[in-house]
Structures are given as C-alpha cells and as structure tokens.
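Need a sequence for this fold. Nothing fancy.
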C-alpha cells in the first residue's frame, strides 16, 4: 500500500507540474528574447525605446492574468480542476507556436505589432488559469503532513519552465552567431513550444482521472461570492506574494537583459549564470516546502521577506559585476531567499482559502500579485535605471515589495496544522 501511495503521489506531482513547465517555458521565452523582439516588432531609433516597448507587451500579457484567474477559477470551482488544468494547457501552446511564425514589422508593418500583442494577451489569460489551479490540485491531493512539500512542486514546475527557456536560450546564443539569432534563430524557441504543449496536454488528460469539484461544497456563483465574502483573503494573498513577484521577475526573467545591457556580459554568459541559479532555486524549493511542514509556514515566509529586505542591495551589487563567479554568487543568494516563498506559499495560500471558493480566491490573489507587480517589474526596472542613472535602483523595488510581504505575513495565522477539506482528506463515505 505504501508503494501504491508513493506511485499515486508521483503521478499527482507530474500532472500538477507539467502544465507549469510548458506554460512558463512559453511565457518566459519572450522575456529572454525581448531585445531581439523589440527590434523586430517595435523598431525605434534608440534601442532602449524598443526594449521598453517589448517589455510593455510582456507586461500586457501579465495584465491578462487576473482575467484568466476569473475564467479558470470559475471553471475549477464549478467544473473541476481537471477541466481548468486541461483547458489552460491547450490555450497556451497555440499562441506560442504562432509567435514563432509571425512576420516582422518590416514585412507587414504595424499589423505585426498588433498580432504580437494579441497573442501575448491570450498567453496571459492561459497563465492566469494554470499557476494557481495546479498548486491547488497538488495541495489538495497531498497527505496532511506533506502539503508544503508537495505544494512546492507547483512553483518548481514554473522554475522548470523558466529553466528550460533559459537553457534553450543558452544553446541558441552559443550555437548561432548574432545575425542568425536576430534573423531567424529566436523563432526556434517559440516553435518548439508546440511539442512541449502537446506532451503536457497528454499527461493532463491521462493522469488526472477524476473531477475535483463536486466532492466539495460549491458556491452558486464563485466569482461574485469570492469578491463579496473573501476579498480580505484575496488581498492577503496579493501581499504575501509581493516580494516573490517583484524579485523573481527582475532576478530571473529580466536579469539576462540586465546582464547584457548593464553589466555588458556576453549573452551566452548571462544565460549560463541564470541557468545555474535557476537550478539552485529549483532544488531548494522542496526543501523549504518540507521545512514549512515541520516548522510552520510563517517562519519560512518571514525568513524570506526579512532576507530580501536586508540583502537585496548587496546581492544586486554582486550581480552588477563582470566576473562570472561574483555575479553568480549574487543571483544564488536571491535564489535561496526566493525558495523560502516558493516552498511555503502554495500550501499557505490554499490553506487560507474557503473550500467552496478555493480556485477563484487563490487564482485571483496570486494573479493580481504576479500579474500587476511581477508583470510590470521589468519595465519599471528599465525606467528607474534610465531616469535615475543608478544601475542598482531595482534593489529598492525589491526591498519595498519585501516590506509589504513582511507586513502581511506577520498578521496571518499559522495554518500548517489546519485540516484541509479536500478530496485527499475526505473519507470515501463522506465523498
């Protein structure tokens, strides 16, 4: 029985993370290609202007995440987690593939820019449905004493997707010359997304074999009821995620561009540093998730918030060098602190939410935080650096976000021992 339980848990984890790997590979490939995309779709006399336009579209995709949370939160609460998770994967693969085929501004003019924005909006809608629902699925299906550990595989899947995108970027920048990469090489990463998407869709259809909604009490109208009765919980979830939203999207999505334009590192070196740091973050997440099961969610989350507030400037100072190992040390420090959030947050926010509104409340809270704060971080970072003429100014954005998270975390109740009325913990006769 123990072996069967272990096998079931592995299947749950695989089904839970595969969509995040695919979606975040697709979504962050854009971030890594922003400089090239800016020149191809938003030509301007000054390269910073093109880059700002490209990351503006990146932010626009993130602004769709809250809308995606409403759509997929409703589906998850009314029709089951499988329906929401399968639909989100299917909705991501197509736009990514089409971005790889898009004609450039020089070929079809402003229509190219418009189509790129449209496809990014669809991607953002899909991500809004995937991230939170997969974490809910993992936590609900885990044993009571392992919710932090199993839930941490949701962000691990996200990091896996970002890592995959970073690795593909490293391969392309290493094997292709600059002219080939700018001309056609960048398209390869987007076109490859269709294969990743089809694999994810197959795994979801096969491994998630029952709907989850219907075994829990249901709200008649999840979205209106969530905003009417659980808006305080939604705001708490936004606040808890503020630090990781800002820090992750600066230090792991925008950072390769920062390394190249501010530190003047070679593209291949920037991707190598980011890839190594992402591996470290990925390995630390389950460790922190397990520690949150043993010590509690609050101590782990507070350690991350306090650490980011104190260490953001010194770590970014290390990252603002040209020596490989110095830069890597700085990013590894950020990875260790972010792992505190990524390991403990999934279980913490699921445990906060009421059973019958869980998908909607958690999805809206996470996607408001990451969609608004995270999505605008690269653009705001570029703006602050340009106008302050101070390359370390993004550290203050990270410190401000850490302070917000700290203020919320100290006021929430410890939930690691709270019973979760989920399908994993409902007796057969009660279900």
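Here you go.
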């Amino acid at each position: 029985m123990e072996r069967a339980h272990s096998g079931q848990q592995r299947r749950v984890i695989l089904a839970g993370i595969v969509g995040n790997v695919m979606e975040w590979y697709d979504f962050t490939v854009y971030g890594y290609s922003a400089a090239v995309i800016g020149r191809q779709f938003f030509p301007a006399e000054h390269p910073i202007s093109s880059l700002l336009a490209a990351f503006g579209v990146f932010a626009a995709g993130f602004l769709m995440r809250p809308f995606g949370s409403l759509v997929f939160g409703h589906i998850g609460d009314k029709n089951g987690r499988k329906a929401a998770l399968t639909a989100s994967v299917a909705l991501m693969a197509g736009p990514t593939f089409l971005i790889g085929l898009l004609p450039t501004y020089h070929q079809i003019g402003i229509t190219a820019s418009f189509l790129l924005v449209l496809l990014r909006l669809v991607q953002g809608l899909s991500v809004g449905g995937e991230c939170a629902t997969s974490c809910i699925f993992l936590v609900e299906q885990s044993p009571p004493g392992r919710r932090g550990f199993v839930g941490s595989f949701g962000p691990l899947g996200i990091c896996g997707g970002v890592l995959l995108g970073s690795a593909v970027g490293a391969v392309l920048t290493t094997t292709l010359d600059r002219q080939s990469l700018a001309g056609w090489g960048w398209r390869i990463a987007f076109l490859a997304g269709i294969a990743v998407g089809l694999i994810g869709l197959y795994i979801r259809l096969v491994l998630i074999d029952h709907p989850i909604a219907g075994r829990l009490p249901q709200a008649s109208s999840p979205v209106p009821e969530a905003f009417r009765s659980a808006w305080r919980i939604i705001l708490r979830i936004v606040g808890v995620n503020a630090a990781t939203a800002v820090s992750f999207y600066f230090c792991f999505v925008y950072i390769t561009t920062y390394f190249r334009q501010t530190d003047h590192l070679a593209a291949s070196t920037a991707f190598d540093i980011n890839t190594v740091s992402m591996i470290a973050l990925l390995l630390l997440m389950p460790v922190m998730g397990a520690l949150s099961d043993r010590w509690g969610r609050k101590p782990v989350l507070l350690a991350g918030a306090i650490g980011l507030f104190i260490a953001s400037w010194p770590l970014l100072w290390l990252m603002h060098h040209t020596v490989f190992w110095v830069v890597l040390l700085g990013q590894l420090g950020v990875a260790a602190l972010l792992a505190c959030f990524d390991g403990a947050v999934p279980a913490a926010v699921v445990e906060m939410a009421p059973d019958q509104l869980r998908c909607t409340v958690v999805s809206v809270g996470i996607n408001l935080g990451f969609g608004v704060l995270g999505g605008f971080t690269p653009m705001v970072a570029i703006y602050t650096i340009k106008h302050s003429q101070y390359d370390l100014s993004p550290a203050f954005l990270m410190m401000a976000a850490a302070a917000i998270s700290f203020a919320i975390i100290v006021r929430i109740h410890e939930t690691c021992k709270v019973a979760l009325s989920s399908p994993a913990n409902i007796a057969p006769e009660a279900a």
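For context: Residues 2-206+223-409 form a domain with the Growth Hormone; Chain: A; fold (CATH 1.20.1250.20).
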